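Marked as duplicate of an earlier ticket. Keeping the data here for the record.
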Amino acid sequence: QVHLVESGGDSVQAGGSLKLSCAVSGNIDSTTFMGWFRQVPGKEREGVATINTLYDFPYYADSVEGRFFISRDNGENTIDLEMNSLTPEDTAMYYCAAGTPGGQVASKQLYLSETEYKYWGQGTQVAVSS
């Protein structure tokens, strides 16, 4: 089992920055990818940013490319998400996830697909006002 606990969600004004953190514990070696997803009520949960924990390879949704940065802190056992230039469109519940995506060929869409992740945190709310 892998236990994930998100923190850092807050209310911030457009243009501001926020940093989310996901504390990871348990059988970390059982997964190869960790990352962040977000969901707005009534909409499908979407991948925001994930990272291959074996090779430190990040994958970003087009909507956050260049603004958000995902990183893994092995010393603290956390998966962090630095969010910059926030807009109201970034308002959502953000979830941390871990899993081992399938597929024989590297695929950004695959690695950002929630169906490929087994373990999930409880979520942390991010609200961006204008």
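See parent ticket for discussion. The chain has a mean pLDDT of 95.
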